[in-house]
Write a structure and sequence with these properties.
The complex is a heterodimer of chains A (about 250) and B (about 280).
Chain A: H1 2-24, E1 28-35, H2 39-52, E2 56-63, H3 65-73, E3 80-82, H4 86-90, E4 96-112, E5 132-135, H5 140-151, E6 160-162, H6 165-173, E7 179-183, H7 184-190, E8 194-198, E9 206-214, H8 220-231, H9 233-241
Parallel strand pairs in A: 1-2, 1-3, 5-6, 5-7
Antiparallel strand pairs in A: 3-9, 4-7, 4-8, 4-9
Chain B: H1 4-12, H2 18-41, H3 47-51, H4 54-87, H5 93-105, H6 108-119, H7 126-133, H8 141-166, H9 170-177, H10 182-193, H11 195-211, H12 214-219, H13 230-240, H14 242-262, H15 264-267
Helix pairs in contact in B: 2-14, 4-8, 4-11, 5-8, 8-11, 9-10, 11-14, 13-14
Chain lengths: ~250, ~280
């Protein structure tokens, strides 16, 4: 009995702020669909946005750009949409408005901290027995990685083609593969479990990130404000801190 | 088998109350409508050419191969375990039973993560496989079989165990009295007694293995030809080429119908049949 009473009061204490927040004025939820590689920077920006708009909650759905594009196309409740390539944004051209490029990204080799495959350069990835993870060809990170290998005239044999860039990074940080091809920004935000090996500019490839407001959005004004935050000085600062380059 | 008199009584009370009929109809629609829609929306005209694409055949072949291998593994390892669970009283028996059937209720993706931590290259066991034998399991077809067996084997174990528990042990004892060895009794008396359940369990296990997605993509990754099974191929294709994805989905639906046909003895006539042992006769 005592225990359940204690539990109840604990629950009341936990729920109180939430309840009072609801009582004051209605909370609006802004749904942002964004490429997996934007996870860290957009999460930071979302917190800033919530701070500036006390009654707004920003909800993110991070994933493969092409998967998200098909969800937006099918009418998923997105207000803002940001992808990791212009091609994936083209897929929903008729459903979005106010499209702007806000960042670019290049590729890097990610290896586990201990570098079990002794990878030092791109050509090492073709070595027999080296386990390589890439994004599947349909996802921007897979397309860009393929361009990099074509530029370097290398033929690689990955052991797995993952659904998005964060899945590649996970396989690397778990040590299940010797290397993965991910974005520069992913290595920057991955922490100590992953080490980055630079791909020379001569063969590296660039992808451009567009952001748009979804036409069907119920909160177009808020969505525009979020887009302005991302494309504005504050957003660019956060993106740069996370390893992104400015729009071309 | 119900007696004719009992059936008459049943028929005279045949009017279904509305409170049951309405939800029953809703349930039927809920289960059937999506499948009908899939059939309707399928690109029938291009089905032939879509299915002839190399990746489709590859994925289907891989799925059939891995599901069958996983079922074989489940039979070789799972049936003996079912026997132990049904016929032996071990210390911590109910705990053991709960543990081995846990994958039945667990999200498969959790199973994939668990497999990775056990048999991954830096996993509890996998670390030594790599160190001592240079074997790494993830991202191989073998990993797909392991993921599928992990998720599907409990279906076989539970089905066979239930049947073994219900089967009359008197026959086993009679065989033993007549001098048959334990192993011979198991092969010639115990197993034939639970044959229908063994068959149903095998088909269920195979179907579950065929549909496996979460554990496979987590533990084995996704690569055409070696680890990209049908469910993964459908998920990936639906995004970029919904028509091809739908065609793939239709193939899986057809396979499922085939499985149902195999199971018909058990499920279609569930109302007529009352016991496992009665279904041996012709129909």
């Amino acid at each position: 009995m005592k225990k359940s009473a204690a539990l109840l009061s604990a629950l009341a204490i936990v729920l109180m702020p939430a309840l009072t927040a609801c009582g004051g004025s209605k909370t609006t939820t802004l749904h942002v669909f964004a490429a997996a590689s934007l996870k860290e920077s957009f999460t930071t920006l979302g917190q800033q946005f919530e701070k500036d708009h006390p009654h707004v909650k920003v909800d993110f759905s991070f994933g493969a750009s092409d998967v998200l594009a098909s969800q937006v196309d099918q009418g998923a409740p997105a207000d803002v949409f940001a992808t990791a390539s212009t091609k994936t944004m083209d897929l929903v051209a008729s459903k979005v408005t106010g499209r702007k490029n806000f960042a670019t990204n290049t590729m890097e080799i990610a290896v586990p901290a201990k570098n079990p495959g002794h990878i030092t350069k791109l050509a090492d990835l073709t070595r027999k027995g080296v386990k390589l993870a890439v994004c599947q060809a349909e996802v921007p990170c897979g397309t860009v990685a393929a361009t990099v290998f074509a530029n370097a005239k290398l033929k690689v044999h990955p052991v797995t083609e993952e659904v998005d860039v964060k899945s590649v990074l996970t396989k690397v940080s778990l040590g299940e593969v010797d290397a993965g091809i991910v974005y520069v920004s992913d290595v920057k935000t991955a922490g100590d479990s992953v080490k980055g090996i630079t791909i020379p500019n001569a063969v590296n490839a660039v992808t451009t990130y567009p952001i748009s407001v979804v036409k069907d959005s119920d909160h177009t004004d808020l969505a525009k404000e979020f887009e302005a935050l991302v494309t504005g000085a504050a957003g660019q600062k956060v993106l740069a801190a996370n390893g992104f380059a400015g729009p071309a | 088998m119900a007696s004719p008199a009992l059936r008459e009584v049943g028929r005279s009370r045949d009017r279904t109350p509305l409170v049951l009929a309405i939800p029953a109809v809703v349930a039927t629609l809920f289960l059937v409508l999506p499948l009908v829609s899939l059939v309707v929306r399928s690109p029938w005209r291009d089905l032939g050419s879509l299915l002839q694409e190399a990746e489709v055949g590859q994925a289907l072949r891989l799925s059939l191969l891995t599901a069958t291998s996983a079922t074989a593994v489940a039979l070789v390892l799972g049936v003996p375990l079912a026997w132990v669970l049904a016929r032996r009283r071990l210390p911590g028996h109910s705990l053991l039973r709960a543990l081995v059937t846990l994958p039945l209720v667990m999200p498969p993706v959790v199973g994939g993560v668990a497999l990775l931590y056990a048999f991954g290259r830096v996993g509890l066991v996998g670390r030594y496989l790599d160190l001592w034998f240079g074997i790494t399991i993830p991202f191989t077809t073998f990993a797909v079989v392991m993921a599928e067996a992990f998720v599907a084997m409990p279906f076989l174990i539970i089905t066979v165990e239930g049947a073994l528990r219900a089967a009359d042990q008197g026959y086993d004892e009679a065989a033993a009295t007549l001098g048959a060895s334990r192993l011979r009794t198991f092969w010639t008396v115990t197993l034939p007694l639970v044959r229908p359940s063994l068959l149903a369990g095998t088909v269920l296990c195979w179907a579950r293995a065929l549909g496996e997605f979460g554990a496979t993509i987590t533990f084995a990754g996704s690569f055409a030809g070696s680890t990209r099974t049908m469910p993964i191929a459908i998920y990936l294709t639906m995004v970029d080429d919904p028509r091809a994805g739908t065609a793939l989905a239709l193939v899986m639906l057809i396979v499922s119908v085939a499985v149902l046909l195999l199971l018909r003895e058990r499920w279609w006539y569930a109302g007529d049949r009352t016991s496992d042992t009665a279904s041996g006769g012709s129909r």
